[in-house]
Design goal:
Blueprint (H helix, E strand, L loop, with lengths): L2 H11 L5 H11 L5 E4 L1 H12 L8 E6 L3 H11 L6 E6 L4 E6 L2 E7 L1 E4 L8 E4 L2 H6 L9 E3 L4 E3 L4 H7 L1 E2 L6 H4 L2 H13 L2 E2 L1 H12 L6 E2 L4 E2 L2 H17 L2 H10 L14 H12 L4 H6 L5 H7 L4 H19 L1 H5 L3 H10 L4 H9 L5 H9 L10 H6 L6 H20 L1
Parallel strand pairs: 2-5, 10-11
Antiparallel strand pairs: 1-2, 1-8, 3-4, 4-5, 6-7, 8-9, 12-13
């Protein structure tokens, strides 16, 4: 056993909840069925070992078996001990099971092959062995497995070599065409790990994206976009938004000349990066921020499954920015209460206001102050107090409460 194999074997023995021994026992009881850990857990262990990079903090573990994923999951749950929570969730379409053990996510999958009939469609799958399963994966560094029974590394695609070289290599020539979200994931890994995309993989990406966007699928009843494209890309962006540097990832897509996978009108400059920073600070809808200046907004929104509420937000944002540009002198002189009246009369939702803040320009501070200050300021006098002073309930009382509120808003700005 070489140094890396010994290191992995030692590390896997330390997996929480005695999981390694439980799996080994399962293998003995099931005619030595093959089981392996694969993917990010192995990759990150190897990066930690090879590059002395102390970032390893696993949040999930991927396991594949040539047997039944459900049987293995049930065996683990039955034999695990000293845990507060162990939940099983089955996904029959891919023959996978998700175990949640004290918030550590363990995905168990039966080894499979995948066949994509058309770009972006969900694949047709069939059971396979571990070697065939590794071939369907995205990058060589994610196709390294550690097989339990023989305690050996499986590395058919030079993943360890590529980790040493800090390069990202797609596994086959149709990789991006089958699943365009792999391109987003590639930029995510490059950003997080400090790796570079290989020349061949970059060329494949550029060839595929050059044909983007692909045509809709037409059937007897309607036209639609391949669901796998939008769902997977949005999932990848969501992971980046939560755990990684979205600005750096998107900047890499721009450097690689494949930004049109999201929106070809994105221009990476200080204004865009400022907005991207703010959309995260405000916990806003980053998808809308990325799509807001699309050349064909309707088609972009269909492609990325933008719902009617999100579509309304983008259209409101575009209408307001257009109005601000046309009537700039007027808006430069508005008081805080007049800004409040403008925003609330338009009935703008918070997501629209967040986009307007992220847009920058001369008026972002006014929208910011409304969102965090003005909207919470109330009249000094309530309806009950005004009634006691002789006011009759109705429009006049409502107008007075509003006037008194606006007085308080303007006083707040003067302090």
């Amino acid at each position: 056993m070489n140094d890396i194999s010994a290191y992995l074997n030692s590390a896997i023995l330390k997996i929480p909840f005695n999981l390694s021994n439980i799996i080994s026992e399962y293998i003995k009881l099931n005619s030595n069925v093959k089981v392996a850990i694969v993917g990010g857990y192995i990759r990150d262990l190897l990066i930690t070992k090879i590059h002395k990079k102390k970032f390893f903090n696993p949040i999930d573990i991927d396991i594949i078996t040539e047997g039944s994923s459900v049987d293995l999951a049930k065996f683990v749950k039955k034999n695990i001990s000293n845990v507060e929570l162990c939940l099983i969730k089955e996904f029959e379409i891919y023959d996978t099971v998700e175990l949640n053990i004290n918030n550590l996510k363990i995905d168990i999958a039966s080894a499979r092959e995948e066949n994509y009939k058309a770009p972006g469609l969900n694949p047709i799958i069939k059971h396979a062995n571990i070697e065939q399963d590794l071939k369907r994966r995205d990058f060589s560094i994610n196709a390294i497995a550690f097989e339990f029974s023989k305690k050996e590394i499986i590395d058919f695609f030079d993943g360890i070599k590529h980790i040493k070289e800090k390069e990202l290599h797609l596994l086959h020539e149709n990789s991006i065409q089958d699943d365009p979200s792999r391109l987003i994931r590639c930029a995510r890994y490059a950003s997080r790990l400090g790796f570079k995309i290989s020349k061949q993989s970059l060329q494949q990406s550029q060839r595929v994206v050059h044909r983007w966007p692909w045509a809709v699928i037409k059937d007897n009843t309607k036209s639609r976009f391949p669901p796998g494209i939008s769902i997977r890309i949005r999932m990848e962006l969501s992971e980046i938004y939560k755990y990684d540097n979205l600005a750096k990832t998107i900047s890499l897509l721009n450097d690689w000349e494949v930004i049109s996978i999201l929106n070809k009108n994105i221009t990476i400059n200080n204004e865009f990066l400022r907005g991207l920073k703010w959309i995260k600070k405000l916990k806003g809808n980053y998808i809308l921020y990325l799509l807001k200046n699309s050349e064909n907004l309707e088609l972009s929104c269909q492609r990325f499954f933008i719902n009617s509420k999100e579509m309304k937000t983008i259209k409101e944002y575009l209408n307001i920015t257009n109005q601000l540009e046309k009537e700039k002198e007027k808006f430069l002189n508005l008081t805080p209460s007049e800004w409040t009246e403008f925003i609330e009369t338009k009935n703008l939702d918070e997501e629209t206001v967040k986009l307007l803040i992220c847009n920058g320009g001369a008026f972002w501070k006014s929208f910011f102050k409304w969102l965090f200050i003005y909207k919470f300021i109330k009249s000094k006098k309530s309806g009950k107090l005004l009634k006691s002073e002789g006011w009759q309930p109705g429009k006049n009382m409502g107008d007075e409460i509003k006037r008194l509120r606006y007085v308080e808003i303007d006083k707040k700005e003067k302090r």
